[in-house]
Amino acid sequence: MSNAPISVHLDDQIVRVPPGTTVLDAARAAGIRIPTVCYHDHLTANAVCRLCVVEWVGSRTLVPACVAKVQPNARIYTNSERVRTARRVILEMLASAVDLSEAPELQALLAEYGAHPRRFGPDAVRREHGAVKVDNPFYVRDYDKCILCWRCVQVCAEDVQYTFALGFNGRGFDTSIATFFDRPMPETTCVFCGNCVGACPTGALKGKREYEAAPVGTPPTHGASNVVPAVVRSAPGR
Amino acid sequence: MGCLPVTTSSSVSAPTSRLTLSPRQATAVRAVLRRYRGKGSAYLLPCLHDIQAITGWLDADLAAQVAESLHIPAVQVHNVLEFYALFYDHPVGRTIVRVCDDLACYLAGSEAVVRACAAHLGLDPEHGGTTADGEFTLEIHPCLGRCEQAPFLMINEEAHGFVRPEQVPALLGGAP
Amino acid sequence: MSYQPVLTARVGKINPTSLSDYEATGGFQALARAVELGPQAVVEMLREAYLLGRGGAAFPAGIKWKAVREAPPPKYVVANADESEPGTFKDRILMESDPFALVEALIIAAFAVGAERGYIYIRGEYPLAIARVQHAVNACYNVGYLGRDILGSGLHCDLEVRKGAGAYICGEETALFESIEGKRGFPRLKPPFPTEYGLFGRPTVINNVETLLCVPPLILRGPDWFKSIGPEKSPGPKLYCLSGRVRHPGLVEAPMGTTLRTLIYDYGGGVTGSGELGGVLLGGAAGFFVGPEHLDVPLDFDGLRRIDAVLGSGVVMVFDTSVDMKVVLRRIARFFRHESCGKCYPCQLGTQRQYEIVARLAMDRLRPGDLDALREIGQTMRDASICGLGQTASGAILSALDRLGYDEMTGRFARFNGR
After folding, report:
1. ipTM confidence
2. For residue C295, pLDDT beyond 50
3. Mind listing the pLDDT tens digit for each residue in C379-407?
4. What's the CA gap between C278 and C271, in Å, rounded?
5. If you measure CA to CA, which chain C residue comes closest to B75?
6. Which residues pair with A165 in a beta bridge?
7. CB contact, 8 Å: C371 with chain A?
8. CA–CA dist C371, C379 (Å, integer)
9. Nearest-angstrom CA–CA distance, A183 and C267
């Protein structure tokens, strides 16, 4: 396969990028912003949040920009009405189910897309998990704020640490992040590396000191960045 | 963030049920675990099916033994137990009654069959559940693929089509 | 109705646990013929016959086989027998009544594409089908139809029966691979497609049971015979799962393109309940409702696409005018809420919100804006979900509102006196 740049139509621009470039990276190169939530530059892209979907002419469905690779002469609209509706409805549904009070990036997106999470009514079922889990000296887990972006599970597994302390409970709407049989962190394989805390975008995971020190309403100091601290790609093994 | 703490706080440990096995069951479980030793992730579902056929469900200890035997992370066993409707990480009845209440069975009167089962077992017709003596679990099930025999129910692996509500007590037999 | 059944020819007529019964009724002649013809010719036959997948997606089987045949080993063949679409029971009947046919078809697939290992993934709620197919596999090993050097052809093939564990999503081909690999049934992102990156990351042919069962007769009788049945653009025999309010529910084998009228009134003996047809659900919970005005539309992939419906897995579920459609829709919404895997946001969140709104609809407690929200959720799931489950989770509900005379002012389905 040739490595000569290929041309794609992104909105009203023609962008030339190397083959194999994702739509997201092509858009970035062209100065077009596509919103992302679950995507992280240093982690496997699973395209679960679907906020980055774009309209690719000829495709039956919208296409996730974080994983879709550009094709020669593709015609892609990153901000069409259809795209904006999907993004808005996803944001509305997410905000109606999860506490996003410590996720400023998501709050900004809700405003930008004119999302009305309350349209589903006051009795729309929320994902609530009871008290914040404080079971170790290093970090706390507040799953009411969890958006299931999978980043913590990935850094705990093959993406970084190969520790396999984190997994899932339930399925569908009732999915939640869990440990083996919901055991407290010290009774799991967790090595308290902190990668999951660094990867969490919403404050569901945060340092214990920060949790204890912050008075209610303090703007968050975590999660706004897209950077995992101290990421070391360790060799596979137990 | 540091090393493992020396002491663990157990205050948040959720009380979980423990499985008690008869000597015969324990021997059978050990044989299954031996058979799957080192076989890896692709044998997780077969292994869980074989163990559940002996024990009915898995507690944390048994799930951890499965992980150890297959050489896979324990949390993967947890993930799978939690995902699939036919795997149980909590106690269930010796007899599991699955009543189909999906479209075709509804059209043939499954609601009355569900009510008859729930009434006979003394369980909630909305959600089913397990009888206090641990004998029966009632599940209101999505389509069981027997639409031509609607309404349909299964008692463990035994199939019963064209069920009428008045047949339910006889079908469930030794129930309370 | 002079059509002679092919796929169900042995159903009820042979002992499904007897290999000699199977062989006495033409069993394993197709494998012998395939070995004579060679793999390339077998793949060409599928392409020439234009055999479309019978599991729901209607993808040409020959294209899959050709792609995997040209891919480097190791590769796999998989029978998708995780039949879980509400209203579907055809594969179960085939496996319970003619299990050797599935085994033979999968051996032919393995031979044609150059795979030495295959899996038959059967839904866990089908214990009899599992037992029968497992018995057939064992019997085939005993006489040398499976294992090393099959029929002295130099072909090696191992087959393993896998039991599902209660997850509708595992009928989605990539979720099924994940399940065989011992993981949660999360569908993968496509591309890459299974022909390139399938089971264990290797090129894989995965076909529905009915699709596979079309293969032995196709090899014995040739593509021209296959194309002589049904319409040109979706040829061959088809199994229709007739259920609901008809006098004789059951499995019907008929040419592709048979009309609803023929199925309901000739094969099904007419509508029960009020006796008056209110609507039909085609393709199951993942399909669409159509009204009685479509009684004469041919039921094939092409004909139904033209009226914005799908053949899907061949579900024909009949609703008479006395049915309470709102309760039906609530069940469909409940089904998807229960079966969403939870991987992508649109479906994980949308199936819950959809259920809440449809539950209000069923209780006549809709609020202003609910129906707009329902439509937008549906559009978002259809447009932005990862897999077919989310993409189809709103189709039946919205099609019922649009096509069965739902009146937003009165909150009633005009045609249905059941509400």
Report:
1. 0.96
2. yes
3. 999 999 999 999 999 999 999 999 999 99
4. 10
5. C183
6. none
7. no
8. 12
9. 57
Provide the shortest C-alpha distance from residue B84 to chain C (in Å): 5
Interface touch C341/A172, C-beta < 8 Å: yes
CA distance C257 to C289: 18
C386 and chain A in contact, CB less than 8 A: yes
C241 touches chain B (CB under 8 A): yes
Buried b (16+ CB within 10 A) or exposed e, C52-88: bbbbbebeebbebbbbbbebeeebbbbbbbbbbbbbb
Look at residue A69 and give its three-state secondary structure.
Answer: strand
Length of chain A: 238
pLDDT digits (tens, 9 = 90+) for C325-335: 999 999 999 99
Q: Which two tokens stand for residue B52?
A: 């559940």
Angle between helix C90-97 and helix C209-221 axes, rounded to 10 deg: 60
pLDDT at A1: 54
Tell me the β-bridge partners of C271.
Answer: C246
**What is the rounded CA–CA span in Å between residue C74 and residue C201?**
10
**Cα B93 from chain centroid?**
8
Which tokens in the block code for residue A188? 């799991």
Angle, nearest 10°, between helix axes C29-37 and C39-49? 110
Cα(C193)–Cα(C203) distance, integer angstroms: 9
Dist. CA A223–CA A205, nearest whole Å: 9
Pairwise CB contact (< 8 Å): B87 & C166: yes
- Residues (pLDDT < 50) of chain A are 222-238
Quote the CA–CA distance of C346 and C379 in Å, as a whole number.
Answer: 10
Q: Any idea how long chain C is?
A: 419
Provide DSSP, C53-115.
-TTTT--BHHHHHHHHHTSPSS-EEEEEE---STT--HHHHHHHH-HHHHHHHHHHHHHHHT-
Where does the pLDDT of residue C311 fall: very low under 50, low under 70, confident under 90, or very high at 90 and above?
A: very high
**C9 is written with which tokens?**
């020819």
- In C170-199, the residues whose Cβ lies within 8 Å of chain A are 184, 189
Q: Which chains touch A (3 or more CB pairs under 8 A)?
A: B, C
pLDDT digits (tens, 9 = 90+) for C110-167: 999 999 999 999 999 999 999 999 999 999 999 999 999 998 888 899 999 999 999 9
Backbone angle region of A166, left / alpha / beta, with phi > 0 → left and psi within -120 to 50 → alpha: beta
Instruction: Give the integer Cα–Cα distance in Å for C219 and C181.
Output: 32
pLDDT averaged over 10-residue windows placed end to end, chain B, 176 residues? 32 64 98 98 98 98 98 98 98 97 98 98 96 96 97 97 97 72
DSSP string, B42-68: GGHHHHHHHHHHHHSS--HHHHHHHHH
**Chain A residue closest in CA terms to B4:** A191
Q: Give the whole-angstrom CA distance, residue A44 versus residue A38.
A: 10
Residue C402 pLDDT: 96
- Report the alpha-carbon distance of residue B149 to residue B108 in Å, rounded: 9
At C2 the pLDDT is: 79
Task: Point out the residue among A47, A64, A89 whose CB comes nearest to the CB of C377.
Answer: A89
Residue C271 has pLDDT above 60, yes or no: yes
Q: How many CB atoms lie within 10 A of CB A199?
A: 27
* The pair of three-digit structure tokens given for residue B61, joined into one six-digit string: 């200890």
CA B166 to chain centre: 26
Mean pLDDT over C286-309 rounds to 94
Burial label for C302, CB within 10 Å (0-12, 13-18, 19+), is middle
Q: What is the structure's pLDDT at A233?
A: 34
pLDDT above 70 for C198: yes
- Percentages (nearest 5) of helix, strand, coil residues in chain C: 45, 15, 40
- As to burial, measured by CB atoms within 10 angstroms (0-12 exposed, 13-18 middle, 19+ buried), residue B128 is buried
